[in-house]
Design brief:
heterodimer, A: 237 residues, Ubiquitin-like (UB roll), Fumarate Reductase Iron-sulfur Protein, Chain B, domain 2, three-stranded antiparallel β-sheet, 34% helix, B: 631 residues, alpha+beta, Flavocytochrome C3, Chain A, domain 1, 21 strands, 36% helix, globular, disordered C terminus
Chain lengths: 237, 631
């Protein structure tokens, strides 16, 4: 379906956010011009900005609809689907490319099995505190939406994915397999496609230091590339 | 395919994902169905932590005390053997997730850190900041992605469960699912199906649940003859931010880390909270419950807050709100341990909780009730259950249909303790994978006829078509608003029989009005209204189970509180409620005795310490005995 605009007027209630304004339209699906229509379609789940479902462009900025409080927004509020993902309908987009990328970079700790092997490796509170910040990434896609390198002509996987590689490579068990992830990052759509616009870090709703993650992974990939260049073919790195 | 072990798991929260992992380990292929990408399941909302008696604080905690706290906290309504097994396994569950890379908070030694939670006197709760559920879910999502990469898991995200496929002997043989984007209905076949479909918060509308917690899958199963147990036990969380769209949870861990609940002694006090001197504040929980203070179990804290605000009219400024205060805790501690939840308050309420006490009120949070499942033993309902039923833990009264997580009823009795839900979801998942695989290996059912499969799919297609044609004057969202309001008014903290009767008539009215809904959206692409309308009917039918179940139970136990019957009545009501759907849309109730063979029921009071540790010596002896029994 071709894209289109509709105008709605909804009664304001204190504390209202963009999603509750959209819900109001469900109660009375009539445009500002008095035309009967259908309710708007969008994706949402937790409504408290931890699930990452309700990303949309609000007044031109990709963010979560649930935490966009109406009283803080200039009016009229414009709401659009994110621009870098295929639109399914209205504000609903298909973000499966992000999950596919997570698969490509092997974003997991390869445990041997769920049987009891006691606790995992010890970690310092200091390491935990910065890794925890990275682990709050909710795959919402705002960083991809804001990135000029993510477009029709590129396969760039985006800052969120690179930051996840940094997280898994920092974990003591994950580090045992870090080169597999680094190799994936050196492949098509990988870290070399970053253009350093730094938009990602500005729109991240969880304030994840994405540009730091990208430079750290740039360092790890460069180091690995040099080692690989000089290593004998049968040497395990 | 002959020889191929296949199972279907509906729901990609903690229980469903853990079941997927453990089924894969047993050699099964898993079809995993989820309403949303699994990484967005409601488990992400769990904040405070996960319980396990690891005893890293030198307090003498033990799994036996955890078991006792859980059973006592649940007011002796849970069948005890599986609760014991869960508590004894809890440290291993936490260690497993630690190995999966969960960023749990650490002690200076680098070990897992533990904090306090309600209903216990021990530091027993492992946590990852204040977004523990999110972190646990991500770890499992990642493990499942790995199995997906290996071709062992097939995900159906953005798909909704529609019905069970039952054969002539009422064995579950598969499901019908619908693609939410194309509306296509199709059958998936497997002899073992698990519903790990979470809670029912949307029945109450303004709950702490995600909008995907529709209760629809459990309701559909119930409408097909699956028993629904203890529906009337609904947990109201004492501390949430009231909101028109949802009530956002403020985790119990806030009190675990020292947060205090209070109201001004003078409800007309117009000063800002921090200007009110301590002597003029009423810390009503600490005053009434000196041993547990702000960490009494949720049912008790909610009732007290409700009483202070509604009956005594002592809420802040006469409103239905009390303070939850962390301003005395150093900001660095708050940032390290509670940032995730305080951020929610800041973002949605627009006030700084580090320096101003938060304003909170109770909200619907969790369903202790759910699909009836077994615990590996015969019950006094043997005659009504399939032959050999007791061999399979977590199997419902329908052969081959399993359930786990919030969708089952098994672990929390009449009230769930905080941080036991993440545990029960993960533990149920650990049980489900092997049990389902074992069931499939033993199953020797003849192949279904294609006509049986086609009929099941066609029924769902026709139901969607019927809704597309609805042309009445009622608006589905407004009926939902009324359902939520009525259920919240009459089936939450305090219950009265006359009001429950009225609620029941209201539900009849809503069901009638449902028939007169007009659907505006006739599109066949991502038609959310269509799903919403169908699921609304499921919710009304399940509301009946809650409302009438509550009407029947003339006693007070855990979260079920009737001022007209203020005492627990073990002689009459130490029983599991079982609701069975009747063709006229009404639930038929029957009851089953509770297995209290391990811990003898005693009076539940949190005015003094009582976790077995209170009867100090007896408690320790019991712990040793329990450890022997479990090893």
């Amino acid at each position: 379906m071709a894209s289109y605009w509709q105008d709605f007027e909804v009664p304001f209630t204190p504390g209202m956010n963009v999603l509750s304004a959209l819900t109001e339209i469900r109660r009375n699906p009539v445009t500002a011009g008095g035309q009967a229509t259908t309710a708007v379609v969008w994706e949402s789940s937790c409504l408290e900005e931890v699930c990452g479902a309700c990303s949309m462009r609000i007044n031109g900025v990709p963010r979560q609809g649930c935490s966009a409080l109406v009283e803080h927004l200039p009016q009229p509020i414009t709401i659009e689907p994110m621009s870098k993902f295929p639109v399914v309908r209205d504000l609903l987009v298909d973000r499966s490319r992000m999950f596919n990328s997570l698969r490509k970079v092997k974003a997991w700790i390869p445990i041997d099995g769920t049987y009891d092997l006691g606790p995992g490796p010890r970690q310092s509170p200091k390491d935990q505190s910065w890794m925890y910040v990275l682990s709050r990434c909710m795959t919402c896609g705002c960083c991809l939406d804001a990135c000029p390198q993510v477009n029709d002509k590129s396969e760039f996987m985006g800052a969120a994915i690179i930051s996840q590689v940094r997280l898994f490579n920092a974990h003591p068990t994950g580090a045992l397999h870090k080169h597999r992830r680094i190799e994936a990052l050196m492949g098509p759509g990988g870290i070399a496609d970053c253009g350093n616009a730094q938009n990602c870090v500005r729109v991240c709703p969880k304030e994840i230091p994405l540009t730091q993650s990208i430079s750290e992974m740039g360092r790890q990939t460069a180091k690995y590339a040099i080692k690989r260049f000089f290593a004998k073919p049968d040497v395990e790195m | 395919m002959p020889g191929k072990k296949e199972v279907i798991i509906v729901g990609g929260g903690l229980a469903g994902l853990m079941a997927t992992v453990t089924a894969c380990e047993k050699g099964a292929s898993v079809h995993l169905i989820s309403y949303v990408p699994v990484r967005r399941s409601h488990s992400v909302c769990a904040q405070g932590g996960i319980n396990g008696a690891v005893n890293t604080k030198g307090e003498g905690d033990s799994p036996e005390f955890h078991f006792d706290d859980t059973v006592y906290g649940g007011d002796f309504l849970a069948n005890q053997p599986m609760v014991r097994d869960m508590c004894y396994d809890a440290p291993k569950v936490i260690y497993l997730l630690d190995r999966m890379g969960v960023t749990f908070n650490r002690t200076p030694e680098g070990l897992l850190d533990f904090r306090r939670f309600g209903g216990t006197l021990f530091n027993r709760t492992a946590f990852a900041g204040a977004t523990t559920g999110q972190q646990l879910l991500y770890a499992l999502d990642e493990q499942v992605r790995r199995y997906e990469d290996e071709g062992k898991v097939f995900k159906y995200e953005h798909h909704a469960f529609q019905s069970l496929i039952l054969d002539g002997q009422r064995n579950c043989r598969g499901i019908v699912l619908a693609d939410q984007q194309t509306l296509e209905c199709r059958a998936l076949l497997a002899d073992a199906v698990a519903l790990c479909t979470g809670g029912i918060g949307m029945i109450y509308g303004q709950s702490t649940n995600s909008v995907i917690c529709t209760g629809s899958a459990a309701s559909r199963a119930y409408q097909q003859g699956v028993w629904y147990a203890n529906g009337e036990f609904i947990q109201i969380h004492p501390t949430a931010i009231p909101g028109a769209d949802k009530c956002r949870l403020i985790s119990e861990s806030v009190r675990g880390e020292g947060g205090r609940v209070w109201v001004p002694k003078n409800p007309k006090d117009t000063r800002r909270a921090k200007e009110i001197p301590v002597a003029e504040r009423w810390y009503f929980l600490e005053e009434k419950y000196p041993a547990y203070g702000n960490l009494v179990p949720r049912d008790i804290a909610s009732r007290e807050i409700f009483d202070v605000c509604v009956n005594q009219k002592m809420g802040i400024g006469g409103q239905w709100e009390v303070y939850l205060d962390v301003t005395h805790i150093p900001e660095a501690t708050l940032r390290a341990k509670l940032a995730g939840v305080l951020e929610i308050y800041e973002k949605f309420r627009g006030e700084d909780p580090y320096h101003n006490p938060m304003r909170i009120f109770p909200a619907m949070h969790y369903s202790m009730g759910g699909i009836y499942v077994g615990y590996g033993a015969e019950t006094d309902r043997k005659a009504d259950l399939p032959a050999g039923w007791e061999q399979y833990k977590h199997m419902s009264n329908v052969n081959g249909l399993f359930a786990g997580g919030e969708a089952d009823y098994q672990y929390h009795g009449a009230n769930r303790l905080g941080a036991n839900s993440l545990l029960s979801c993960l533990w149920a998942g650990r049980v489900l994978g092997p049990e389902m695989t074992k069931y499939v290996e033993n199953s020797q059912l003849p192949a279904l006829k294609q006509s049986e499969i086609d009929t099941a799919v066609r029924e769902q297609e026709q139901a969607f078509e019927a809704v597309l044609k609805m042309s009445g004057s009622e608006n589905a969202t407004r009926i939902q608003d009324e359902l939520s309001r009525e259920m919240t008014m009459h089936a939450t903290v305090v219950r009265f029989n006359d009001k429950l009767d009225k609620l029941d008539s209201k539900l009849t009215e809503l069901l009638e009005r449902w028939e007169r809904i007009g659907s505006a959206d006739k599109s066949r692409t991502a038609n959310q209204e269509l799903f919403f309308i169908r699921e609304l009917r499921d919710r009304i039918l399940l509301s009946r189970v809650i409302a009438r179940g509550a009407r029947m139970r003339d006693e007070s136990r855990g979260a079920h509180y009737k001022p007209d019957f203020p005492e627990r009545n073990d002689a009459a009501w130490q029983k599991t409620t079982i609701a069975q759907y009747e063709p006229n849309g009404m639930p038929k109730f029957s009851y089953e005795s509770v297995d209290v063979s391990l811990i003898k029921p005693r009076v539940r009071s949190y005015k003094k310490a009582s976790h077995g540790g209170a009867e100090e010596k007896g408690g320790e002896k019991k712990a040793e005995a329990g450890a022997t029994a479990a090893s």
